Amino acid sequence: MDSLSLLLDGFATALTPMNLLWAAIGVLLGTAIGVLPGIGPAMAVALLLPLTYGLEPTSAFIMFAGIYFGGMFGGSTTSILLNTPGESFSVVAALEGNPMARKGRGAQALAAAAIGHFIGAIIGVTLLALLGPTIAGLAVNIGAPDFLAIMVLAFIAVTSVMGTSRLRGFASLLIGLTIGLIGLDQMTGQQRLTFGLLHLADGIDVVVVAVGLFAIGEALWVAAHLRRTSGKPIPVGRPWLGAADVRRSWKPWLRGPLIGFPFGAIPAGGAEIPTFLSYVAERKLSKHKDEFGNGAIEGVAGPEATASASAAGTMVSMLTLGLPTTATAAVMLAAFQQYGIQPGPLLFQKESNLVWALIASMFIGSVLLLVLNLPLAPVWAKLLQIPRPYLYAGILFFASVGAYAVGGEPLDLVVLFVIGLIGFAMRRYGLPVLPAIIAVILGPTSEQQMRRALQISDGSLSGLVNTPFSITVYCVVALILVWPLLAKLLPGRKADQEEPQEGERVDA
Q1: Mean pLDDT of all residues in 15-41
Q2: pLDDT at 52
Q3: Any stretches that span the bilayer, and where are they (predicted)?
Q4: Helix H segments across 351-387?
């Protein structure tokens, strides 16, 4: 009851007219900036940080929370409509959302995403208020072998369900792991695959890779095939979800937060792994498996609810442990320190009013996000009616601006277009893009966790599987790998294992 009364006090603070105004500004700015490829909520918070010196800490963090959730939905908007993720965690939204948009169901995909974000945020923030300290206490006991096992599960799960064959999925994974190796070895400091270029010593930012593979690769692919298509604008379609869409979406909306929140609460976690796993789970559980890859609404609803709940989960380790698990959380940690506040186990005691007002503002921001963006779904979908030469010229421009803004170096643009050519080649030869993205995101971290586990065990391979959690995860990995072979031996299952062919191009 004590937490409930503190939360009610937080609502009393967050619902003042000025704080409501800051929350609305945060949601609007986050959505607008999240739409731009490469300029996500983390950069928005970083850019606005100097402007908040004159604000009260509570008002500043209420606005930052709005930017966080608004940026997540903004990144999903371009993923769904233009196959151009605004953030690394929004790449999954493109898998089914973009095919839906190309069929004239972009408004429905955006509505499913908006409602998914709302439900995921409400459930996630509720769990943050009720279970935050407890989950943080459990998460801090997870060691290097457990982190490695989770990442291996993500690698295997995604490559097993993407593309027209597992071989293509693993080939894409290998491309991503190779890109992830570029830069300095985190353990020894030696340069790897930098070709003597000092600029590559820091590695290639995942935003540049995601924008290059998706946005530039998509634009080049469309340009190469523009004469083969009619070039007619894609219809927007009716603006609301039908009863059939709701029936197919409500279970993924509820399942997503159960996957996203625990992963978000794990230190060094984030929204990438749970959204990938949510997509895999929905593909396995759906009664419409034949639609996956061609616009299954479950593939939008589940991962989007997962991403929003994961965002709430990241606040657990940031507030209770002082450990930021995403770039946005890291910038918010810097903002806390700017005001002389140190997140940690004593934060709930020393800054109780600020913390509970921040949590309450997350509820308010989620409602504002739904109220503002659900009616705007048909408006956003009208982007698809812009003639494609102009549309993709704009995508190239904003993708270049976003990539340049990441590091401020002209060489970033060269790297962006080289990776875009790789994305074009992957589309040409049917390689799914998603395994490459997840490999770039998780490859360096998984390598670091593996080497750390081996150091702890003095080089013994048993150090990789010396915990009950890691053993359980590896059993799941083995089941995923062996299941197709077992399924062929079961009567009536062979047809279910055949993945739909998508023609010459295989979207990811």
Answers
A1: 77
A2: 66
A3: 20-49, 61-82, 109-131, 138-161, 167-184, 204-224, 316-336, 356-377, 389-407, 413-442, 463-486
A4: 352-373, 377-381
Handedness of CA 45, 48, 49, 55 (dihedral sign): negative
Residue 508 lies in a domain: no
Domain membership of residue 53 (yes or no) is yes
pLDDT of residue 410: 82
Residue 507 falls within a domain, yes or no?
A: no
Higher pLDDT, 401 or 132: 401
The CA-based angle 270-22-67, given to 5 degrees, is: 20
Q: Is residue 30 part of a domain?
A: yes
CA distance 493 to 495: 6
Lowest pLDDT segment from 34-48, 204-218, 399-413: 34-48
Q: Are 144 and 265 in contact (CB under 8 A)?
A: no
Instruction: Output the CA angle 210-213-217, nearest 5 degrees.
Output: 140
**Model confidence pLDDT, tens digit, residues 308-332:** 888 888 887 777 766 666 667 767 7
Question: Can you tell me the distance from the alpha carbon of 508 to that of 500, in angstroms, rounded to the nearest whole number?
Answer: 13
Chain mean position to CA 486: 32
Q: DSSP character for 461?
A: G
Q: pTM for the full model? A: 0.66
The predicted structure's pLDDT at residue 500: 45
Task: Output phi, psi for 165, to 5 deg.
Answer: -160, 155
| Beta bridge pairs of residue 192 | 183
What pLDDT, on the 0 to 100 scale, is given for residue 320?
76
Bridge partners, 183 (sequence order): 192
- Mean pLDDT for all residues in the chain: 77
How many Cβ atoms from other residues are within 10 Å of residue 460's Cβ? 11
What digits encode the pLDDT tens for the residues 60-104?
888 888 887 787 777 777 778 777 665 667 778 888 888 888 887
- 3-class SS letters over 395-440: HHHHHHHHHHHHHCCHHHHHHHHHHHHHHHHHHHCCCCCHHHHHHH
Rounded to 5°, angle at Cα 424 from 421 and 428: 140
Domain span at 342:
2-497
The 10 Å Cβ neighbour count of residue 464 is 19
Distance CA 165, CA 153 (A): 18
What is the C-alpha end-to-end distance of the chain, expressed in Å?
47
3-state secondary structure at position 285: helix
Site of tokens 């503190």: 6
Quote the tokens at residue 334: 């810097």
Beta bridge partners of 184: 191
Q: Are 324 and 318 a contacting pair, CB within 8 Å?
A: yes
As for how many domains the chain has, the answer is: 1
Q: What angle do CA 44, 410, 414 make, to 5 degrees?
A: 105
Q: How confident is the model at residue 140 (pLDDT cuts 50, 70, 90)?
A: low
